[in-house]
């Protein structure tokens, strides 16, 4: 709230004097008295308004504190006694022998594999990078003007890598939702740089973090989370979720992987149904999914509505499910969202069978999807899901074949191409490939005779982003639980 305002006040005695004096005063003094009276009459409504605002602010603060409590207790019901948490050792949960220190150098849990290891283990993951390089060799190398982000109102960053450090040159990130995406992307790049056992080239680049990178498909040269086939100038980068989502139901990528593995059960113990949860309005294919599965015994498909960008609406709380709980089902359905959907990489960490409709939007890991044959690792269906029931029934009737597909999926994605090592390798491979078809940046700028490095160091940018987020969280946003 802004600074408090002072309102005119009078004591009872002075009021009486004013009243008595006005009986014999001149017209001019009558006018003065009437003016003071008007001010007093105006002051009371304003004072009441301020009191109301203060009460609303206190209510908002209470609601915020209630939201921060993961187990709020209703006043009209006795609080149930929560079970005492039981702490378990790693051996009790994972039930495997600790990793041999000698194997750590080649472990897929590491972000620091050497370039030769990356190429040997994950070459099939880099196919879209090779496509992008070939396209630039055809149309010409990247020039500084190609990196302009003036066309993008929100969700774009221009950055530079110089001497293994990340600098932000220009940032068009103001929306809180985009801030978390941009930071998640930059954190991944910084992690890949710091973990690299070999030096990486100096480059300058731009990236966008929105679901729809270029709605006009105007052939902008940017790194993007996904692209259509016509967007040949775009380079695919890993999803920001490989760092973390700002949702309790999703969260940190490595945490999800670890918990999925700890809670994974045998195929026969999984629920023999096809599961899907999500917002329906983001893509027409989702409405078609609900229509195709309505009333089907083999399907558990429900809409989840959101109160805001991070919280599920109260009416959907019972149907919302964590990513770990998804893995309890034999069949999982993945659909596109506003464009791509970041959920796919989490589902592919389950040892279940993923059903995907024919896709329009491309993601980096799509190059290792196999829809048929001995190495089949997912099931592809039509965009209207008209053939899904027949394919599900076929797998229900042939559990041995189903187990093979689920196992292929887990070994392909969970154990190799969606591991921490694969993600860092992808970033470094893209940085090296970009340097081959792009200009060498000029990292210095001369200002008043003083040489300064361009941009803002990544570490400083993170701190500034957090400061700005706090400053822009208004009283109203706090009261309406938007921040």
Automatic annotation (TrEMBL):
InterPro entries: CAP10, O-Glucosyltr/Glycosyltrsf_90. Residues 199-439 form the Glycosyl transferase CAP10 domain. This is Glycosyl transferase CAP10 domain-containing protein. It comes from the Eukaryota. Residues 9-26 have a biased composition (Low complexity). It comes from Periconia digitata. Residues 1-35 are annotated as: Disordered.
């Amino acid at each position: 709230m802004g600074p408090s305002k002072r309102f005119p006040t009078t004591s009872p005695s002075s009021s009486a004097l004013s009243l008595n004096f006005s009986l014999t005063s001149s017209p001019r003094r009558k006018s003065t008295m009437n003016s003071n009276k008007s001010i007093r009459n105006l002051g009371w409504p304003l004072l009441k308004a301020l009191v109301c605002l203060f009460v609303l602010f206190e209510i908002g603060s209470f609601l915020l504190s209630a939201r921060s409590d993961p187990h709020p207790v209703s006043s009209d019901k006795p609080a149930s006694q929560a079970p005492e948490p039981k702490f378990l050792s790693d051996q009790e949960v994972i039930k495997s022998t600790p990793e041999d220190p000698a194997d750590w150098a080649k472990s897929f849990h590491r972000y620091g594999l050497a370039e030769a290891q990356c190429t040997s283990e994950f070459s099939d993951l880099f196919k879209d990078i090779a496509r992008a390089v070939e396209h630039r060799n055809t149309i010409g190398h990247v020039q500084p003007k190609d990196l302009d982000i003036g066309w993008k109102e929100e969700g774009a960053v221009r950055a530079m890598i110089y001497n293994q450090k990340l600098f932000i040159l220009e940032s068009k990130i103001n929306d809180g939702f985009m801030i978390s995406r941009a930071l998640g992307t930059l954190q991944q790049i910084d992690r890949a740089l710091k973990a690299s056992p070999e030096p990486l080239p100096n480059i300058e680049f731009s990236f966008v973090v929105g679901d729809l990178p270029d709605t006009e498909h105007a052939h902008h040269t940017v790194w993007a989370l996904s692209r259509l086939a016509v967007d040949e100038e775009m380079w695919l980068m890993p999803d920001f979720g490989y760092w973390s989502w700002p949702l309790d139901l999703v969260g940190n990528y490595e945490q999800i992987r670890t918990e999925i593995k700890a809670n994974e059960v045998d195929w026969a113990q999984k629920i023999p149904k096809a599961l899907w949860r999500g917002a329906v309005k983001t893509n027409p294919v989702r409405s078609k999914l609900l229509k195709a599965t309505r009333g089907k015994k083999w399907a558990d498909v429900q809409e989840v509505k959101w109160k805001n960008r991070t919280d599920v609406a109260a009416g959907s709380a019972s149907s919302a499910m964590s990513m770990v709980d998804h893995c309890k089902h034999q069949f999982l359905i993945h659909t596109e969202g506003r464009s791509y959907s970041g959920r796919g990489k989490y589902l592919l960490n389950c040892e279940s069978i993923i059903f995907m409709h024919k896709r329009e939007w491309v993601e980096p890991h799509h190059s290792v999807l196999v829809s048929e044959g001995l190495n089949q690792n997912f099931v592809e269906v039509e965009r209207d899901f008209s053939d899904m029931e027949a394919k599900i029934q076929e797998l229900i009737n042939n559990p041995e074949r189903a187990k093979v597909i689920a196992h292929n999926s887990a070994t392909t994605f969970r154990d190799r191409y969606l591991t921490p090592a694969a993600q860092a390798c992808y970033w470094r491979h893209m940085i090296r490939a970009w340097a081959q078809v792009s200009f060498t940046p000029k990292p210095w700028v001369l200002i008043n005779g003083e040489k300064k490095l361009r941009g803002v160091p990544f570490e400083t940018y993170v701190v500034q982003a957090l400061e700005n987020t706090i400053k822009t969280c208004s009283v109203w946003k706090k009261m309406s639980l938007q921040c």
